Amino acid sequence: MITIDIPGNRKIVVKYLVLDYNGTLAIDGKLIAGLEPLLNQLSEQLEIYVLTADTFGTVEKELAGVNCQVSVIKPDEQDKQKEQFAISLGKENIVAIGNGLNDALMLKSAELGIVLLQAEGAAVKTLLSADVVCRHITDALELLTNPLRLKATLRN
C-alpha cells in the first residue's frame, strides 16, 4: 500500500496498480527495457494488474519475470471491461496508467489516473480523463516510488 497526502487536495491510499500493456508497458508488443525491476519493486507495495487486448500475442512471454497478474480482455467494449475491472477492485484504491482510448474510463474512475505520451501517443479523451500526464512509463512508475513528486504535481 502507498499513501500520499496531497496538501489542499486529498489523501490517496492505493493498493493496486492497473496498467495497460501496448503503448504503456510495451511498444509493438515488446516490454520496454528496464521496466521489469521497477515493476517488481512496486509489487512489494502494490498488487499489479495488466489489462490488455494482447494485440501482438506477446504479453505472457514479455511479463514472465514480472510479479503481476495479466488479464486479456475481449475485443468488444474494451473501455467498459477495463472500467469494470477497476470498479471490481475498488476504484478508490487504484492507480491506473494507460494511453489508449480504451483506457479513458479506467483512468477517470481510478483514484489516480496517469496518461502516457510515448511512441504510440495518447488519445485526447484519455488525456482529459487523467489526473497526471507523463512522458514515459518510468516517469509514471517513479511517481509511485517517489511520492513527493506527486505532492508537487497535485497540490492545490
Topology (elements, then pairings):
Layout: E1 2-5, E2 11-14, E3 16-20, E4 26-27, E5 30-31, H1 35-42, E6 47-52, H2 59-62, E7 69-72, H3 78-89, E8 94-98, H4 104-109, E9 112-116, H5 124-129, E10 132-134, H6 137-145, H7 148-154
Parallel strand pairs: 3-6, 3-8, 6-7, 8-9, 9-10
Antiparallel strand pairs: 1-2, 4-5
Helix pairs in contact: 1-6
Structural overview:
By secondary structure, the chain is an alpha/beta fold. Helices cover 33% and strands 26% of the residues. Strands 7-6-3-8-9-10 form a 6-stranded parallel beta sheet. Strands 1-2 form a two-stranded antiparallel ribbon. A two-stranded antiparallel ribbon has the order 4-5. Strand 8, helix 4 (104-109) and strand 9 (112-116) form a beta-alpha-beta unit. The mean pLDDT is 93.
* Overall number of strands: 10
Largest sheet: 6 strands, parallel
Distance between the termini: 24 Å
Kindly name the structural category: alpha/beta
The chain-level mean pLDDT equals 93
Helix residue percentage? 25-40%
Beta-strand fraction estimate? 25-35%
Strand order of the largest sheet: 7-6-3-8-9-10
Uncertain runs are none
Element pattern in H and E:
EEEEEHEHEHEHEHEHH
The tally of helices reads: 7
Q: Specify Rg, calculated over alpha carbons.
A: 14 Å
Shape: globular
